[in-house]
Amino acid sequence: MAMGATLSRRTGAGADWRGRVARWLRRLAALAALLLLAVGLALWWAARWTPPRAKFPLQGVTIDAGNGAVHWGSIKAAGADFAYIFATDGADGVDAGYARNMAAAREAGMRIGPIHRYSLCQLATDQAANFIRHVPRRADALPPVVWLDYDDRCPDRPTRALLLSELATFLAQIEAHMGKRSLIAPGPNFEADYKVTRGIARTTWLRRDFFPPDYGAHPWAMWQANDYMRLPGAEGTVGWNVVRPEGMSDEQE
């Protein structure tokens, strides 16, 4: 009788233990489902968020070959007033979609401008020659943009004095070709190390997702506000940009 009671208590304890484990597993599963839902909602929100039009009436996209065969009518219908398209990279790189995107965006009636990815590993004159060779001068083009960021393909880290000197050479040559002054677009880490906006007197385009950037020496004229934007008409994500209403001078426009 005593042995039966002992076995019964052990059986009951085992069942109670298994019940507690099952309840914890159900709670963990529910928590995981909530976390997945929260992540999904955050990604959904990030893929659609843009700064308010009332504050920034002029907004547009950044496009490169990674966005595939872009349907520019859909991009325009989604609210893009202009587009900056990656054109050249260093001394010999050309974005595979540049010529196609420029022609199609222009045909769709969009204002467009080219972007050059500046390389710390190549001479400014060689990079300018690459840009001039592939980007034609057009009076209706937006000011060219020099994209300044670190690149895993380039380990060089020149002194600030050398970078500013080379960058000034590059800007002088492409601006003589384009007939208008450029914008410079340093990433936050690049700007922290080289303080380009203090050494180069050009309008700035800064980058920070969802919150206005504050890392330049001067107020920004353009802001890449969302690098996670998804639009009908383009594969993957695009950069979504806004213009500060008072940020672009007549000379640059």
TrEMBL record:
<dbReference type="InterPro" id="IPR017853">
    <property type="entry name" value="GH"/>
</dbReference>
<comment type="similarity">
    <text>Belongs to the glycosyl hydrolase 25 family.</text>
</comment>
<dbReference type="GO" id="GO:0009253">
    <property type="term" value="P:peptidoglycan catabolic process"/>
</dbReference>
<dbReference type="GO" id="GO:0003796">
    <property type="term" value="F:lysozyme activity"/>
</dbReference>
<dbReference type="InterPro" id="IPR002053">
    <property type="entry name" value="Glyco_hydro_25"/>
</dbReference>
<keyword id="KW-0472">Membrane</keyword>
<protein>
    <submittedName>
        <fullName>Lysozyme</fullName>
    </submittedName>
</protein>
<dbReference type="GO" id="GO:0016998">
    <property type="term" value="P:cell wall macromolecule catabolic process"/>
</dbReference>
<feature type="transmembrane region" description="Helical">
    <location>
        <begin position="28"/>
        <end position="47"/>
    </location>
</feature>
<keyword id="KW-1133">Transmembrane helix</keyword>
<keyword id="KW-0812">Transmembrane</keyword>
<dbReference type="Pfam" id="PF01183">
    <property type="entry name" value="Glyco_hydro_25"/>
</dbReference>
<dbReference type="GO" id="GO:0016052">
    <property type="term" value="P:carbohydrate catabolic process"/>
</dbReference>
